[in-house]
Design a protein that fits this description.
Elements: E1 4-6, E2 12-16, E3 21-27, E4 34-40, E5 47-53, E6 59-60, E7 70-75, E8 78-83, E9 92-100, E10 103-114, H1 118-136
Parallel strand pairs: 2-10
Antiparallel strand pairs: 1-3, 3-8, 4-5, 4-9, 5-6, 7-8, 9-10
Length: 137
């Protein structure tokens, strides 16, 4: 039986706009027939990003190779999807699929690309804390 697991804390990954993100899909078997990455945004059908057959290089689908930001790499029992220079439109649920004969396994991870800067959030938190403390004086 094939098992698939994506390294994704609590099913979600948060990244800042413009950062790079890697989704690592780990397999229980190295002798797989096929692997694939899909992207699904709410209310839409899943889109096939890239697929591999046995030890061949990844083949890209649906224009995901055009920007050069999506790179799929296979190494032994890992199929990694690298997304560089993330954009808000990259926020989606990504599925990794693996097949061995008729046995198919699927795992998912939701990637959320945050538009704001974390320094802005820290500034607001510090400002609010100072304001509260000054009201107590």
């Amino acid at each position: 039986m094939v098992q698939v697991n994506i390294s994704c804390l609590n099913g979600k990954k948060y990244v800042q706009n413009g950062e790079n993100v890697s989704l690592n899909c780990l397999f229980s078997s190295v002798d797989l027939d096929a692997t694939a990455w899909f992207k699904q945004t709410p209310g839409e059908k899943p889109l096939l990003i890239a697929s591999t057959f046995r030890s061949f290089a990844a083949v890209y689908h649906n224009g995901f190779d055009k920007s050069g930001r999506f790179i799929a790499v296979t190494e032994k029992s890992t199929f990694t999807l690298n997304i560089s220079n993330t954009e808000a439109s990259d926020s989606a649920t990504y599925f990794c699929a693996a097949a061995y004969y008729t046995d198919i396994a699927l795992s998912d991870c939701t990637v959320l690309v945050l538009k704001g800067k974390s320094t802005y959030l820290q500034y607001n938190l510090i400002y609010s804390l100072i304001k509260c403390l000054s009201n107590d004086l």
